[in-house]
Amino acid sequence: MPTRQESIDFILDHYEHPRHRGALADASLVVRGGNPGCGDVLTFYLRLDAGGRVAAVSFEGEGCTISQAAASVMTEKVLGLSLAELTALPQDPLIEELGRDVVSTRIRCATLAVNILKTAEQQQRTAAARGAAPAPEVS
Amino acid sequence: MPVLPQRSLAECRADFPILQREVRPGVPLVYLDSTATAQKPAAVIDAMDRYYRLSNANVHRGIHTLAEEATALYEAARDRVQAFINAGSRKDVIFTRNASESINLVALTWGRRTIKSGDVIVLTEMEHHSNLVPWQMLAAETGARLEFIRVTDQGELDLEQYAQLLRLEPKLVALTHMSNVLGTINPVTEIARQAHAAGAVVLVDGAQSVPHFAVDVQTLGVDFLAFSGHKMCGPTGIGVLWGRPALLEAMPPLLGGGDMIKRVYLREFKVADRPYKFEAGTPAIAEAVGLGAAVDYLQSVGLDAIAAHEQELIAYALERLEEVPGVKVYGPSAAKKGGVAAFTLDGVHPHDVAQVLDRDGIAVRAGHHCAMPLHDRFELPATTRASFYLYNTPAEVDKLVAGLYKVKQLFG
Asked: pLDDT digit string (tens) for B375-386?
């Protein structure tokens, strides 16, 4: 269990030095979402390999420290996963990693990134059905 | 009505049990969120406790002693509210669940009867969602048109533009007495005078005004006033709608059921007189008793004393907040506003500000404060809001400012 200060340092490190931030030019899938209540927004860019697994990932977004840090953390976890595996991603390990004590009053901010990634499979299916890339809001 | 001795504000803090608690061991509570809901003095908690321990029964038409007592307590609360807002008759004081329900009641009865396709309803850009959404719903249903009094960069209503909107001959002007974000106290009497000259009915959302300064419906010159009990030291679950007798008399009931009837037949009913025709079903009796006790409490302190205290606090808070580099407070100068300071801190999300402050026991609110369109107006996703009431102190303002320096250090 990280201490409270370790959790804060971890979150601030990811917030100030986000991993994989920016758009991905050759993304095969773009998934978006946000918490309209707080104005947190996130966009994930996913490139899938021939086997349908995540070969590259990046994100862009705006919002509070926790929502943006959590997105950065998630980009380190999804390489090699299939869309079905993204859908099955649990929330708890991320909450533990960010520090449950720190994010307990901010669960919606902490889980925004993982919840958006969990919709990637659904968003791809909808996009395929419509023949275009939609951008539904996740709240 | 009991005549309580006038109390000094310094004594008041001790009346609120919750203010004695620590948020964490060694960290006292600094409650700066009274605009969301006010804390409750022991007098209110005790009145509700006493009601349930000694007098609980259903109101009206009971013959037994407890039913008589419960009815007397419930109706005495109405009398207290009537006196508090100087309503002409107790029959014009309707108990609802909260200010939102009071506004919805008007929209769904007076509004549905009166508003036709193409009619204009004038609102403002600074409304709480509770004074926007009911009118949006009514407009969608009737084909009415919504127009908005603009908010200036200083956070005040643009009264020149309002004068132009009145040329559209609106049927209704609905506005807040005091903004729950900017703190702006709107010149309601003048706005209502002009609205009436243009033939409009005026509804005022008094959720933020009635708790904080003396509001007299007879001099205010409006047609409907809505407010909530819980923002004025009373319990949640009870609010008030006051309306002009002729308007209330013409309004149909909204909900049907017990208590709102004179006589029921198998296929029809005769509606009760006001206020009961708007109070279907068993009401929030203990909550009304609590609201009555809250009115007594506020009057024992004195609304003018409360307003003066908050005026001092907000003036001091604005002065201290403005000295923090990167802080921007929204809304007019202290003289034109109540005890609300919504602000941003450069480079730090309001939720992060609120969370760091919470570590020091400082309770502020972060978000859109149920006023998304107002935040859109200022191109802000969210603000942090500190708000004050009779029990707050300048020392708490100092703690807030010290907390903000901590936030800046953390997010350096």
From this structure: 999 999 899 999
